[in-house]
UniProtKB/TrEMBL annotation:
PANTHER family listed in its UniProt record: AB HYDROLASE SUPERFAMILY PROTEIN YCLE, MONOACYLGLYCEROL LIPASE
UniProt xrefs under InterPro entries: AB_hydrolase_1, AB_hydrolase_fold, AB_hydrolase_sf
Protein name: 3-oxoadipate enol-lactonase
Pfam families in the record: Abhydrolase_1
Residues in the signal sequence: none
Alphabetical UniProt keywords: Hydrolase
UniProt domain AB hydrolase-1: residue ranges: 21-136
Length: 268
């Protein structure tokens, strides 16, 4: 197990493989285990670093107010700690938000950014938005982690043949420290860097499931604000695309990364 100190917080990370660095950032309530179907493939081509954000996994869970900017600073600190060149950052859901924040705050640390089923803001723009956010905020406080896990497993993996994936969620989610989980959820609500997307200079790949929580159209709208953004849609997938469609996801991610690291691209 590898760890480093960011201030008073001990953060867990893992490193596999050799080559150009690819840094994987998980979503809310998850950990390095988000990437179990990507690691065997990616480590054949790259040095793969995965991190447990503070409040998650095997990292410390300080009693404090978390923020997306704070999570991004932790990621930046890890890059500096390992003395890495600019990295290919891949983030899912909340991890994608952290990636957007880092691309705005410390663009020199990124070679590219891949965001999966995520976006540059979590703000209400309609009554429906307000109601959905309020519902999630309230239920997260009223329900136990076991109840959340059962509901989330059914939502993410509804097919009969996805029983093993449902069981992973049902086993792992209750391991969360609920106080830290709620603090991370609060960090998401109201966050935005959308007004700064034009400043993101690195190539950006936005991966959207066709059945994600937010629509493909909403992602296409913000991709158009990215100077070097592109959108890929993966079909028959929900919010946990790297788990429910790992082969399709790995293929599009590898194609993007290899394109950027090709000799022709490097000359450009």
């Amino acid at each position: 197990m590898s760890e480093f100190k960011q201030g008073d917080c001990r953060l867990h990370y893992e490193i596999h493989g050799r080559g150009q660095p690819v840094l994987l950032v998980h979503g809310l309530g998850s950990s390095t285990r988000d990437w179990e179907y990507q690691l065997p493939v990616l480590k054949q081509h790259f040095q793969v670093i995965s991190l447990d954000l503070r409040g998650h996994g095997r990292s410390d869970k300080p009693r404090e107010r978390y923020s997306i900017a704070g999570f991004a600073e932790d990621v930046g600190a890890l890059i500096r700690h390992l003395e890495l060149p600019p990295v290919h950052l891949v983030g899912i859901s909340m991890g994608g938000m952290v990636g957007f924040q880092l691309a705005v705050d410390q663009p020199q640390l990124l070679r590219s950014l891949t965001v999966v089923n995520s976006g540059p803001e979590v703000k209400a723009h309609s009554l429906r938005d307000w109601l959905e956010i309020a519902k999630r905020w309230s239920l997260s406080r009223l329900l136990s982690m076991e109840q959340i896990a059962n509901g989330l497993g059914r939502l993410l993996f509804p097919k009969a043949e996805q029983q093993a994936l449902r069981e992973k969620i049902q086993q792992r989610w209750p391991e969360n420290d609920k106080r830290a989980y709620l603090s991370a959820l609060d960090a998401i609500i109201g966050w935005s860097v959308r007004e700064h997307l034009g400043r993101i200079s690195c190539p950006c790949l936005v991966v959207s499931a066709d059945r994600d929580y937010t629509s493909v159209a909403s992602k296409q709208a913000y991709v158009q604000q990215l100077p070097h953004g592109r959108l890929v849609v993966i079909e028959d997938s929900r919010h946990a695309t790297p788990m429910d469609q790992p082969e399709a996801f790995n293929q599009c991610l590898l194609a993007f990364l290899h394109e950027l690291d090709s000799p022709t691209t490097k000359k450009d």
